[in-house]
């Protein structure tokens, strides 16, 4: 029943009783109108494992699916958050990816956010869940919806084959840095496959070493070179990979900041990150947010959202 990670804002509720929670949820949905606050109090303050227990207990005592009932009672962004919270993490990722590839146009940002930031184990589970839920492989879905080098990077990430050891091969790191330099800054046109091979295959520690070497050889940060050499979704995915290798919570902090700054809010991004990271590394994301932008994530969400949607996000965010 424990939380997924050690650095989340959502932790195991003490004195947890699934039947009592079911009772509270049934009360909240009774009669005319819905008590959104009661729903938030139960679902946003329980771990994924506890919510699964609540779903089972609900089905047992009502003979209906909790997600279906909530789905018909709620609407808008608040509903999206609640339904996301009821899903197991790989199921939520699969659902988001499916939705991002639905109909005309693809929400590339969703594919990038998820595939560049998940571990091998998470991607392997996600591949299995996607196939089970949607009857085709995630790779087939991605290939049907993307093209070119961007597609090739995503396919590589989907193999979940990144080296996850701590070994740093010094000589290889120098060679990798040189390869990337010669594939980009040092020539006309860019040999993107070289970037793919290094960025999608090598382990984290090794890559940090490669980035240092790259800085020495080229006099630039690898991120600057990617911005100069590439564009569009390919640039976005390579930048996301580099940022996640350097500092994953900072990557998410930046995505949250960009989803809220300026006019309008990209709710899909805001919801996806708040739901997916609440139990994993939200404490670190908040610390990075404050460090990077001089304001708390809490104050940003408060100023950018409203109503029950705001309330539930603030619970997931945890205090200031």
TrEMBL record:
Any Gene Ontology CC annotation: zymogen granule membrane
GO molecular function: calcium ion binding; calcium-dependent phospholipid binding; phosphatidylserine binding
Primary location: membrane
Keywords, alphabetical: Acetylation, Annexin, Calcium, Calcium/phospholipid-binding, Cytoplasmic vesicle, Membrane, Phosphoprotein, Repeat
SUPFAM superfamilies in alphabetical order: Annexin (SSF47874)
Keyword Signal: no
Subcellular location: Zymogen granule membrane
InterPro entries, alphabetized: Annexin, Annexin_repeat, Annexin_repeat_CS, Annexin_sf, ANX4
Matching Pfam families: Annexin
Membrane topology label: Peripheral membrane protein
Family: Belongs to the annexin family.
Domain-related comment: A pair of annexin repeats may form one binding site for calcium and phospholipid.
Protein's UniProt name: Annexin
Organism: Gasterosteus aculeatus aculeatus (three-spined stickleback)
């Amino acid at each position: 029943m424990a939380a997924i990670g050690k650095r989340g804002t959502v932790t195991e509720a003490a004195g947890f009783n699934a039947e009592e929670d079911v009772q509270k949820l049934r009360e909240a949905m009774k009669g005319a109108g819905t008590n959104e606050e009661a729903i938030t109090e139960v679902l946003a303050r329980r771990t994924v494992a506890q919510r699964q227990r609540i779903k089972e207990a609900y089905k047992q005592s009502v003979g209906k699916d909790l997600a279906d009932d909530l789905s018909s009672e709620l609407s808008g962004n608040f509903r999206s958050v609640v339904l996301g919270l009821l899903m197991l993490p790989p199921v939520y990722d699969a659902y988001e990816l499916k939705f991002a590839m639905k109909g005309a146009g693809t929400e590339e940002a969703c594919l990038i956010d998820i595939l560049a930031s998940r571990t091998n184990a998470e991607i392997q589970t996600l591949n299995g869940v996607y196939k089970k839920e949607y009857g085709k492989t995630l790779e087939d879905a991605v290939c049907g919806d993307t093209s070119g080098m961007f597609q090739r990077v995503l396919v590589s990430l989907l193999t979940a084959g990144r080296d996850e050891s701590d070994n740093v091969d010094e000589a290889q790191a120098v060679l990798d840095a040189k390869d990337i330099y010669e594939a980009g800054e040092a020539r006309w046109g860019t040999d993107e496959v070289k970037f793919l091979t290094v960025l999608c295959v090598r382990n984290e520690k090794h890559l940090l070493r490669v980035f240092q070497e790259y800085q020495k050889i080229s006099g630039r940060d690898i991120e600057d070179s990617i911005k100069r050499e590439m564009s569009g979704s390919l640039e976005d995915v390579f930048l996301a990979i580099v940022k996640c290798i350097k500092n994953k919570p900072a990557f998410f902090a930046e995505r949250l900041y960009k989803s809220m700054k300026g006019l309008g809010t990209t709710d899909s991004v805001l919801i996806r990150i708040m739901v997916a990271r609440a139990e994993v590394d939200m404490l670190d994301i908040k610390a990075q947010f404050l460090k990077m932008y001089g304001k708390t994530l809490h104050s940003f969400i408060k100023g950018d959202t409203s109503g029950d949607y705001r309330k539930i996000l603030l619970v997931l965010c945890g205090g200031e």
